[in-house]
Design goal:
GO terms for molecular function: ATPase activator activity; ferrous iron binding. By secondary structure, the chain is of the alpha+beta class. It is built from four helices and six strands, in the order H-H-H-H-E-E-E-E-E-E. The chain folds into two domains: about 5-75, DnaJ domain (Helix Hairpins), CATH 1.10.287.110; about 80-135, DPH Zinc finger (Microbial ribonuclease fold), CATH 3.10.660.10. Helix 2 runs antiparallel to helix 3 (about 45-55). Strand 2 (about 90) and strand 3 form a beta hairpin. The two termini are about 30 Å apart. The strands form two sheets. It has a three-stranded mixed β-sheet with strand order 1-6-5. Strands 2-3-4 form a three-stranded antiparallel β-sheet, with no helix packed on it. The longest helix has 19 residues, at about 60-75. Bound molecules: zinc ion.
């Protein structure tokens, strides 16, 4: 999904842009870059615009794409120390809390209710490292 190009940037928009704004920009870009009208711009540019529009004009694809961007942003702001599964964590059944020791001596702590489906990023309490927990199943208590 990540081809190094942000769809919002392709359409000269920002993630909070409305559907109408996206549509307007898409239309004007198509006029500019459509291969039938513009022989100087490479058709990849048009294909990018088309792909961006197809994703962002669909509410479901757009929300999935937004989630993907958020995750990327989260990843880039942390130094990922390790990727773990739930089984690697120490579970406190009473508190429904999972912990893991960081190499700095601090610890990663997450409550069961904070776990997200897919990847959950847990920052260390004492340093700038973070771990990624792969969550395959939603916590049962949700
Ligand atoms: Zn640490």
């Amino acid at each position: 999904m990540n081809d190094g190009c942000n769809y919002y940037e392709v359409l000269n928009c920002i993630p909070t842009s409305s559907f109408e704004e996206l549509k307007r920009n898409y239309k004007s870009l198509v006029l500019q870059y459509h291969p039938d009208k513009c022989f100087t711009a490479p058709s990849e540019v048009y294909m990018q615009i088309d792909k961006a529009w197809k994703t962002l004009s669909d509410p479901e694809l757009r929300s999935r794409y937004d989630e993907h961007l958020r995750q990327q942003a989260a990843y880039s702001s942390y130094v990922i120390y390790d990727t773990l599964s739930m089984d690697d964590m120490t579970c406190d059944p009473e508190l429904k809390r999972y912990t893991y020791s960081c190499r700095c001596g601090g610890s990663y702590t997450i409550d069961e209710c904070e776990l997200q489906f897919g990847d959950t990023i847990v920052p260390c309490e004492d340093c700038s490292l973070a771990i990624v927990i792969k969550t395959l199943l939603l916590p049962s208590e949700r």
